[in-house]
Design a protein that fits this description.
With 698 residues, the protein is an alpha+beta fold. The protein has a domain at 426-536: Macroglobulin (MG2) domain (Immunoglobulin-like, Sandwich). The chain contains 22 helices and 25 strands. Strands 7, 8, 9, 11 and 12 form a 5-stranded antiparallel sheet that branches. Strands 18-24-23-20-21 form a 5-stranded mixed sheet. The longest helix is centred in the first third of the chain and has 18 residues, at 65-82.
Length: 698
């Protein structure tokens, strides 16, 4: 079975544990839950205006300085990426602004410069295009007008002013609000009606026309000066300036950092990238349910050598049940090689990486990690999954919304992700369409009998902003490829907006179930559709699927059902180390020691490159058969081949004790304690053995 065909699990649990152990910072100076001064200053002073609530929350949950340092790297990396800056430039610019604020804006104030309104604005927006200063006048308070333009990308007006004034001519300069303060607040003496903004404006215009021009509105051309009413939109502008760094930042990376910091290598952990994704469950004609998944990362970074562009994508997946027990885990590699023409084409469109795997019935949590070896970036998928039991009840699979459909290749060519019956569904994981598209709705209904087929109806309802927009009803009998259903809807009449499609099955006037999915219709005339990489799996007749299902059943505690599947896989391919190891574990758990031995002995005699756990199982089988000499031989040969570990040494000690050889038993156990001194059971065994064979205790 070659690399492309081996769609099997690779145990990477131990690598996860190793990564977690290596990530622990054992510095005795650290106290869990206490933030050291340097990190407290970073959080509460240095980045307080630009850190999002999620980032702050994650940072407070970190336990070691090493984790905090890595998070801070990720924090600045994400801002480099947000502003398309070279690495380190976002941090460099931020600290330049911070130092400038502290140097110039703390004068005349009891606060450090970064805490003042001018300091905060400078840290957030940087240098203004122009600053007008109004100082040294007896009839107006000192004031500054900062003019900005070119900030539309931050969600701010194309051009706007911010006004700061020194109330009472003492202390720091604070924000001026046209609605809250009004022109009268800029005048040292104004004896008119406090609500007469127009009168105050006219007085200010006589003294300082340029200052008066921004006293009713900070946004040029609002046109409300003549009415004499201050601009409420100016206060909204001030609020938007203050929240600009928070609104800009997509801080999902911080949550992913917290979730994966003990699993992802340090070199990846700072480089989380956004990704659209799709996960759907589709039942194969063989009766197996497959989980189909697609990653669409925001970019595909590659290395290059000469005219060759390449990278390897590693995908690690874990399926755990409601008790958090791991039912299935897998590791796969996707290798990409492009020439210059292809890489230019791909750079102009999204990339969609698609795969699938079988899964037994149950409720699960799916977690898939994707790592790009070229760029050391990672992204992830997390989903709740439900795989139904076989029954006569009506059941539906999840809904796929596609922009295209075509006749699929035959199953003899292999199993392809997101193939429904005889059709391949093409979709964009972000579920965005244009008006010239035809929307494809694809799903399955299982448990259909003839009566239901003859009488049931499917209703398709489109909702726009919560209101019904369009509806279609079709008889179930109109679909020739049941249980597979595909329906097409031209979108010409759909104006750009957010929509929801609800699909329900009705029998005898009753709604049995429904599916729903949201999608968007864009105002754009064209959208770049993804370049698709499908991981084509081997045909369903391959015993690898019985192996995977058997392994999942075993991990679920369904030993008898697991035995049936794993026996079928093993008998079809008895030379497979993976098949033999899994079946031997089932036999060992069922106390069928002779069968365990007969399966594993051929691999042991040839010392095939198999995991030592396989030979540990063989040794245990020999022990339980009472073949202690043979068990000892297995353990020693395994140690010579793979090296020492506590499991082999402890098993040797048990064998020698049963054989009446206390000296060898003690030697094995004491060696085991040298490797791991915290083995209470082994210590007790040594104590009892010494007491039993010490003549002074008789």
């Amino acid at each position: 079975m070659n690399q492309e065909q081996r769609v099997i699990q690779k145990i990477f649990f131990f690598s996860f544990i190793a990564a977690a152990v290596l990530s622990i910072d054992h510095s005795i100076q650290e106290k869990p839950g206490v933030l050291p001064d340097a990190y407290k200053r970073w959080l509460e002073e240095e980045v307080t205006y630009i850190i999002t609530p999620t980032e702050r929350e994650v940072f407070m949950k970190l336990q070691t300085n090493k984790e905090r340092d890595i998070f801070m790297e990720a924090f600045w990396y994400q801002r480099d990426k947000l502003h398309s800056l070279p690495e380190g430039k976002a941090m460099e610019e931020h600290y330049r602004r911070l130092n400038h604020a502290n140097r110039y804006f703390g004068r005349g104030s009891t606060k450090p410069g970064w805490k003042t309104d001018r300091g905060r604005t400078y840290i957030i927006l940087g240098e203004p295009e122009d600053i007008q200063r109004f100082e040294g006048k007896t009839q107006t308070y000192p004031a500054e007008v900062w003019f900005y333009q070119g900030k539309s990308g931050l969600g701010l007006p194309p051009g706007f002013s911010l006004v700061f004034f020194q109330e009472g001519a003492i202390g720091e300069y604070r924000f001026y609000s046209p609605a809250r303060d009004g022109p009268q607040a800029l005048l040292t003496s104004y004896y008119g009606d406090p609500l007469d903004f127009l009168g105050a404006y006219q007085k200010l215009a006589e003294l300082e026309p340029d200052l008066a021009a921004v006293s009713l509105s900070l946004i040029p051309g609002e046109g409300n000066m003549l009415a004499g009413r201050p601009s409420l939109s100016s206060d909204i502008l001030i609020q938007r300036v203050e929240t600009t760094p928070i609104r800009q930042m997509k801080d999902i990376y911080a949550q992913k950092f917290l979730e994966y910091k003990d699993i992802v290598e340090v070199e990846y952990s700072t480089n989380y990238i956004l990704s659209d994704s799709s996960v759907n469950v589709i039942k194969d004609p063989s009766g197996l349910y497959f989980v189909h998944y697609a990653f669409e990362p925001e970019r595909l970074s590659v290395d290059f050598y000469g005219d060759n562009y390449f990278t390897t994508i590693k995908v690690n997946g874990i399926v755990s049940n409601e008790d958090n027990k791991i039912i299935y885990q897998f590791e796969k590699d996707f290798s990409f090689n492009f020439d210059e023409e292809r890489i230019k084409s791909i750079s102009r469109q999204p990339v969609s990486i698609r795969d699938m795997f079988p899964l037994i019935p149950g409720n699960y949590r799916l977690s898939i990690l994707l790592k790009n070896e070229a760029s050391k970036e990672f992204t992830s998928i997390e989903r709740e999954l439900f795989i139904p039991q076989e029954s006569d009840m009506l059941q539906t699979t999840s809904l796929i919304l596609g922009y295209g459909i075509k006749k699929a290749e035959t199953r003899s060519e292999g199993l392809r992700p997101f193939q429904l019956g005889s059709h391949q569904i093409y979709f964009h994981a972000n579920k965005t369409f244009i008006k010239s598209d035809t929307l494809i709705a694809a799903f399955q209904i299982h448990g259909i009998n003839q009566d239901i087929k003859d009488t049931a109806e499917i209703k398709y309802i489109f909702l726009k902003e919560g209101e019904e927009f369009q509806a279609t009803v079709k008889k179930l009998s109109e679909y020739p490829d049941l249980p597979n259903i595909t329906e097409q809807f031209p979108l010409q009449g759909f104006t750009p907006a957010h929509y929801r499609i609800k699909i329900s099955l009705w029998v005898d006037g009753k709604e049995i179930f429904f599916n729903k999915e949201d999608f968007d219709v864009s105002y754009l005339e064209a959208i770049a559709r993804p370049w698709i990489y499908n991981k084509v799996l081997t045909g369903i007749e391959n015993p690898v699927y019985e192996f995977i299902i058997g392994t999942q059943l075993y991990n679920s505690g369904k030993i008898i059902e697991a035995r049936e599947k794993l026996e079928k896989a093993y008998h079809k391919k008895p030379d497979s180390i993976d098949f033999a190891q899994s079946l031997s574990q089932v036999y060992l758990s069922l106390s069928e020691y002779q069968k365990t031995k007969s399966i594993l002995l051929p691999f042991f005699n040839h010392l095939e490159p198999a995991p030592y756990e396989m030979f540990l199982v063989l040794g245990k089988a020999c022990q339980n058969l009472g073949e202690l000499t043979e068990a000892v031989d297995v353990y020693y040969k395994t140690i010579n081949h793979y090296g020492l570990n506590i499991y082999l040494l402890n098993s040797l000690g048990d064998c020698y004790t049963s054989m009446g050889n206390p000296e060898e038993a003690l030697a094995a156990w004491e060696k085991s304690l040298e490797i791991d001194p915290n083995q209470i059971k082994v210590k007790k065994k040594i104590e009892l053995l010494k007491k039993k064979h010490d003549p002074n205790d008789r």
